[in-house]
Task: inverse folding
């Protein structure tokens, strides 16, 4: 494997893609050093906000609460993508467009880009009214008496930053390695770790805290990788057809159902919905109820959080994986599950299998989101480390890293096939003609 990756790096095309990806990610991180006009430059590194904004920043790789151009990060684009993914399963019109192939996907992508504009404006309004107006020390003294003009500058600056981040992500997807949005989220999460570790180093119990964090992190990564790779393979048999002297079909394949099919989406939905009551109690002045909801080890917090994770996990899996549609597609293509009748029986079998897998996946997500709060050191001076070790950020980083490794591995295998066939690097359309001439001679 090491030799394969070294050979892969030697390929100019792959090496250029890796360098392009790193440069674009560097440009993305430089955007967090550009202050928003009208904001105090000395507060550029300060992060002011409540639990909700801190959690969202940790999950999306953004920096909500900082007065920088890329504070929203890739969050508006991710929100628009999630909306259209759900609409594709709910709206028949959008579902029909998705089934048109490349042209339909091009339309959906264009609508997603256009939807980023109103979503970024709405999120910019929330950031300006929820953070900047409540923390006047972040505003430049010359602009503190002009809230309307400052609001317009801040909102449109955040909009411009969100569009630039979306453009960088698409450039990474087109000219780099891997999915641009996923790599941007992973880069944003990892970029907060060095500063957090430096703040932990100021603690008197530095080594004890670091060793505890490493132990929690290693166990979390091991479990995440194990579950992420786990899948239930349902055997699929194709009917054997005879046409003259030729026999078609009869192959045996598998329908893979991942244990964690929903990914990190149930935790994100549950976290957003769960924080709303805490915000309402804070605005109403009910401090005791607010503290109860914000205490991650309280029995009420844990119980409601786990229930929401289970509910959203079942909702997302049922929305994205429809057993009736899969059963109809199998019957139309002459495929069946051995021992199961095609049609309604196949749909019932897939539905029951999906229920059991979803139950296991929801239990995994609930544990990975709740358990680290009990074993993470309470003396952590940096809240970003708590969110990172909360399991959700690790789930995102590990998932993106495994996807990137799989893509690089696929390119290495493809390069090996080309070398076995004798195709030179960068072989053009004339290669097949020359090889045929050589074989004929």
Result:
């Amino acid at each position: 494997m090491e030799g394969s990756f070294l050979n892969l790096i030697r390929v100019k095309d792959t090496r250029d893609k890796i360098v392009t990806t790193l440069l674009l990610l560097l440009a993305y991180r430089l955007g967090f050093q550009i202050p928003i006009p009208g904001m105090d430059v000395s507060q550029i590194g300060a992060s002011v906000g409540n639990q909700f904004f801190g959690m969202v920043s940790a999950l999306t790789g953004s920096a909500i609460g900082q007065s920088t151009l890329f504070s929203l990060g890739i969050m508006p684009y991710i929100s628009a993508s999630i909306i259209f993914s759900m609409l594709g399963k709910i709206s028949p019109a959008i579902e029909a467009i998705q089934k048109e192939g490349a042209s339909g996907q091009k339309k959906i992508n264009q609508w997603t880009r256009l939807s980023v504009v109103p979503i970024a404006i709405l999120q910019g309004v929330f950031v300006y009214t929820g953070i900047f107006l409540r923390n006047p020390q972040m505003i430049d003294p010359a602009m503190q008496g002009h809230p309307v003009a400052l609001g317009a500058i801040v909102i449109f600056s955040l909009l411009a930053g969100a569009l630039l981040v979306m453009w960088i992500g698409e450039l990474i997807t087109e000219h780099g390695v891997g999915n641009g949005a996923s790599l941007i989220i992973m880069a944003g999460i990892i970029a907060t770790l060095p500063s957090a570790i430096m703040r932990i180093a100021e603690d008197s119990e530095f080594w004890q805290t670091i060793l505890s964090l490493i132990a929690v992190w290693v166990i979390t990564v091991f479990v995440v990788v194990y579950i992420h790779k786990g899948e239930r393979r349902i055997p699929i048999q194709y009917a054997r057809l005879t046409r003259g002297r030729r026999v078609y079909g009869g192959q045996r394949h598998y329908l893979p159902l991942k244990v964690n099919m929903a990914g990190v989406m149930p935790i994100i939905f549950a976290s957003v919905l769960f924080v709303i009551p805490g915000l309402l109690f804070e605005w109403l002045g009910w401090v005791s109820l607010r503290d109860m909801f914000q205490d991650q080890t309280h029995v009420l917090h844990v119980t409601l959080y786990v229930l929401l994770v289970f509910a959203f996990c079942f909702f997302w899996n049922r929305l994205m994986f429809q057993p009736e549609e899969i059963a109809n597609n199998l019957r139309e293509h002459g495929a069946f599950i051995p021992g199961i009748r095609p049609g309604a029986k196949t749909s019932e079998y897939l539905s029951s299998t999906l229920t059991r897998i979803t139950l296991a996946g929801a239990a995994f997500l609930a544990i990975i989101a709740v358990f680290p709060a009990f074993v993470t050191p309470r003396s952590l001076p940096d809240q970003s480390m708590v969110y990172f070790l909360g399991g959700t950020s690790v789930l995102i980083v590990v998932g993106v890293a495994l996807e990137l490794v799989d893509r690089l591995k696929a390119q290495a295998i493809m390069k090996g096939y080309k070398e076995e066939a004798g195709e030179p690097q960068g072989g053009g359309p004339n290669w097949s003609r020359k090889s045929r001439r050589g074989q004929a001679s």
Summary: Residues 102-132 form the longest helix (31 residues). The CA atoms of residues 27 and 138 lie 25 Å apart.
